[in-house]
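Researcher: I'd like a structural prediction for the single chain below. Treat it as a standalone chain; there are no partners to consider.
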Amino acid sequence: MAQATARHILVPTEEKANELKAQIEAGADFAELAKANSTCPSGRQGGDLGSFGPGQMVKEFDTVVFSAPTGTVQGPVRTQFGYHLIEVTSRQD
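Model: Treating it as a single chain, here is the predicted structure.
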């Protein structure tokens, strides 16, 4: 079964997600931005969600994690929780 590891930053608005994505693309550290901005408890670990399989996350999140290239920041991705920036750190299909 497929497994992935990913990290994310969860914020309440699309504008904030786009602002953080621009900072990451300009060289800011993903983990530091997660610690400072993410509303998810995983923010304390730099947004690290650990390892999980298909169906363990909400559908919109799952779709990105199991299709996006590893090592690139995706998003903003809207879910019922808010707006996510997602980086797939590894995946075994």
